[in-house]
Predict the 3D structure of the following.
Amino acid sequence: MNEFDFIRQLREQTSARKTSTRIVCGIGDDAAVFRQSPDRDLLISSDLLVESVDFHGEATPPRLLGHKALAVSLSDIAAMGGRPLWSMVSIGLPQSAWASGFKEEFFAGYLALADRFGVSLTGGDLSQSQHVVIDSIVIGEVDKGRAVLRSTAQSGDQIFVTGSLGGAAAGLKLIELGARVRSPTVREGDDSQQAADGRPQEPARDASQASEPNDTADDEAIQQLLLRQLSPQPRVGWGIVLGEEQLATSMIDISDGLSSDLHHLCDESGVGAVIEAASLPLDENVVHLCGRRALDPLALALHGGEDFELLFTVSPKNLSRLPKRVDGVSISHIGEITEPSRGVRVREKSHEWDLPARGFEHFSG
Amino acid sequence: MNEFDFIRQLREQTSARKTSTRIVCGIGDDAAVFRQSPDRDLLISSDLLVESVDFHGEATPPRLLGHKALAVSLSDIAAMGGRPLWSMVSIGLPQSAWASGFKEEFFAGYLALADRFGVSLTGGDLSQSQHVVIDSIVIGEVDKGRAVLRSTAQSGDQIFVTGSLGGAAAGLKLIELGARVRSPTVREGDDSQQAADGRPQEPARDASQASEPNDTADDEAIQQLLLRQLSPQPRVGWGIVLGEEQLATSMIDISDGLSSDLHHLCDESGVGAVIEAASLPLDENVVHLCGRRALDPLALALHGGEDFELLFTVSPKNLSRLPKRVDGVSISHIGEITEPSRGVRVREKSHEWDLPARGFEHFSG
């Protein structure tokens, strides 16, 4: 049994017991949805980050980890079309991390991102642990009935994705090859500002030392990809627009990888999909490096996780209402929802093939 | 800096930033409190349980761990005078636990307790980890403005505690001495039903093997104390009554230990307290065993953690309205809130001394 089967089984067990009519959506979406008042629904997401499993302790400056811990849960709220309000964080730390400056740096990164979106840290818990472990909780809300679920895509809806794909997974590969981020500076704001961040502050060892001769453009691309992995930008603005304007018929954030997350959305909605390979917004730094670093931009875009972009569907009648950019982040039209019998497919020129769910799983059997 | 100093510092940082008027109570109480509608406030608690730190993996049957994970967060909601509604659980598991029956047993225990209080599991997260780690989240509510805080005790208020004290800490000591629970059966209901549970199902090794000759009454007392540690009973009914009837002026649950938790309450309220040692409801099984097992009932009652009883204060004018029992659980009148200059004291006959906060801390420096 893999983790998704187990979660499905748990959902069946709990929905058989469900007694509260105030639960709009329980297990199985990016966040739980509750009716809190006659005009508003509440969203709560919880994300567990475990050292050496969900992040590389040694390669992740604590300040960026604090940023990422909050970012992944903000992304969940965005994927529901919600507005984040408050957060909580429960953290387990080894004694060594407690005694060092870890916690101060972690919360500096966390609170800087919270401030950016007007989110208030309101509680949590603290324990000792053998490795760093973080549970990140964000509470948000939507107008009543406006939460955008995974389960409501319909055949004929058009598929979109924010930003670009594959960069975070490329960053992870570079970390595994020994690359390290030069600066603990958190990348602020939208994609267009990427070049303004990650400025060198101290000498770094990076993947280039272990491979071909260095060059400045490669170095910059590597740093950008590391930040894409270590300092993801949740698409909070897009989430709010898509929810409040009722533009998305369904939505999920790309945490496991486009292929897996599209499968989740299609399974929940009982639909199929076809993706145009040529329309996928490949990360430009991956494209820049691909000839020299054994990175396959298309494979990374299809199966690489942790981009924390939003994957959403739009009814044809609403296409003209879609903004071009929100907070400087553009979107790409990558495919179409089909009848379920069609399955989940990718088309590239005259070829078409089944897209397997090859994204990240913690447990596969 | 110990963990309470750090939490205090984080609270100062966050409250300086606080912009939302909908946060009724943030960092520093048993749960965060939010205004959700014109007539209701929302409560959210989060508790992190780490193997080998917050529980002994080998001594804790997964079913009891599932029970305890939910119980500790239900206790937090009770300590706010709230009614629990929904829950979430994020869990990190080693591959070995995933492949064994751990998760099924864990959720059987968790969901049985959830059913008992009409709480619905609505989401969470799953990750791999080196040791078992659980973040337990419970969402509850109270009528607007009725959340019972730690910070609102006043001089002259009378101090009460539900149930009995010291049993959970004695259970932990017995586990450390090698005692093991015989049956994974979760102790259901109130104290008066204790004797109906923990029935032998298989041979067990227990502390008695390592010490004096066995006897049936000792054996039964040991099993009760193990269950007191492994299968705590959250005082949900008392929490609801004290909150809805506006009987408690302040409240906290006893997780770190009476001495530490009373200090937390007094610090937050800016008051002192005096406790009558003779009035403390010592756990009867600890008293039964104390002569033979080096357990000190008074020290365990004062400083032992994890009883998950409610410690609360009542204005003199409301004493006559206090029920004697709720759900079969009685309360004890153990002392009085005083002026802050008096400090936190214990009185035993003609002696009186300062009560140090000697309960549990994860990080002391």
In short: Chain B has two domains: 3-143, 148-360. The longest strand of chain B covers residues 40-50.
